[in-house]
């Protein structure tokens, strides 16, 4: 693909100028083909589909990349939510940062639950034999069996399709392409944009080819703003989908106003606000409908769980269970409303 050249003065990218000047990731065509066949299959089966984005994007500082900017997101929100969406009957495209948490395997992440700690060696009583067996630690068996059973059945049913990104550039290209492919599903597709996407990037044309050298004092890098792609997503790429974005803040006073500003600016369906330190126990749904507690046509609904809460099986409750239940309900109500209106 021929790339337009970048005006050296240019620092405010529109989606159009971004995609006209920044190169697509090498695996894009392959990813598009896989999403296309997944979307057609789900449409033929009459299933709802959710695109879950998850994990953080990197911003490389060099073309031969040694250094990059990153963020904190481990992909917990996305991986956990994907499991609950599957449980709610959705087919899931899980678009995540390479090596971040994934549905099912997240329960055994190398840092919080290393899988070797779940295994025991059973030595053969026959001392002359070298053979030993591996067994699952009895106290861990029930949960492992449950996770494994669901994982295998999801794999067999073809309900989960996984895509990976690393850089913010990969993410933007992939989101545009995937949303365009999913637009054939019309209202049946829900976008759950939980990835932590960088607001700033270094255009390829301004990047150093080789490793940035030290020895000349401090390093000054001026980054450009990532174009606001929610606008074309809503208006052009997938105009019929139900679109939910996330807003993360660290200052509690900014959370609701910023979520509300995003809703007004992009005109999508819902913003879920969360505070960095309370995100596992508290989120706020900001939408344009007339339910909820605020005046001015904006509904503000807090969803909270206690850090000590347990689920129906006595395990630590995950707030994503309630987020997804609420979203599945709202998505269906929205589809029903539009259907109703089309008959009136
Ligand atoms: O991945 P994680 O579970 O550690 O964090 C999830 C999250 C806070 C990144 C997500 O809920 C979110 O708010 N994403 C959007 C961030 C933003 O661009 O404002």
Automatic annotation (TrEMBL):
Give the matching PANTHER family. Answer: CORNICHON-RELATED (PTHR12290)
Which protein is depicted? Answer: DFP-domain-containing protein
**What GO molecular function terms would the record report?**
catalytic activity
Question: What InterPro entries is this protein classified in?
Answer: CoaB-like_sf, DNA/pantothenate-metab_flavo_C
Query: Which family does the record assign?
Result: Belongs to the PPC synthetase family.
Report the residue ranges that make up the DNA/pantothenate metabolism flavoprotein C-terminal domain in this protein: 48-103, 189-280
Q: Which residues are the signal sequence here?
A: none
Single GO BP term: coenzyme A biosynthetic process
């Amino acid at each position: 693909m021929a790339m337009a050249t970048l005006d050296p003065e240019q620092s405010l990218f529109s989606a159009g100028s971004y995609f006209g000047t920044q190169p697509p990731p090498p695996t894009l065509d392959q990813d598009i083909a896989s999403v296309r066949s997944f979307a057609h299959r789900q449409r033929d089966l009459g299933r709802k589909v959710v695109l879950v984005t998850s994990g953080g994007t990197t911003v490389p500082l060099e073309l031969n990349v040694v250094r990059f900017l990153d963020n904190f997101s481990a992909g917990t929100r996305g991986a956990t939510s994907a499991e609950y969406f599957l449980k709610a009957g959705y087919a899931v495209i899980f678009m995540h940062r390479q090596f971040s948490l994934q549905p099912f395997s997240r329960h055994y992440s190398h840092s919080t639950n290393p899988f070797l700690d779940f295994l025991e060696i059973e030595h053969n009583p026959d001392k002359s034999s070298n053979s030993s067996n591996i067994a699952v630690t009895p106290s861990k068996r029930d949960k492992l069996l449950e996770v494994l059973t669901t994982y295998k059945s999801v794999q067999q049913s073809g309900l989960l399709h996984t895509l990976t990104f690393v850089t913010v550039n990969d993410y933007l290209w992939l989101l545009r392409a995937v949303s365009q492919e999913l637009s054939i599903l019309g209202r049946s597709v829900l976008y759950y944009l939980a990835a932590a996407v960088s607001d700033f990037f270094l255009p390829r044309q301004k990047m150093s080819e080789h490793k940035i050298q030290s020895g000349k004092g401090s390093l000054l890098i001026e980054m450009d703003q990532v174009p606001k792609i929610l606008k074309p997503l809503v208006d052009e790429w997938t105009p019929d989908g139900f679109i939910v974005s996330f807003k993360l803040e660290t200052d509690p006073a900014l959370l609701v106003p910023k979520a509300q500003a995003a809703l007004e600016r992009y005109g999508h369906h819902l913003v879920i606000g969360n505070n960095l330190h309370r995100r596992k126990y508290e989120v706020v749904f900001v939408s344009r409908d007339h339910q909820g507690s605020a005046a001015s046509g904006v509904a503000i609904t807090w969803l909270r769980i206690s850090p000590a809460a347990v689920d129906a099986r006595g395990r630590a409750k995950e707030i994503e269970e309630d987020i997804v239940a609420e979203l599945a309900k709202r998505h269906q109500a929205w589809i029903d409303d539009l259907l109703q209106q089309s008959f009136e």
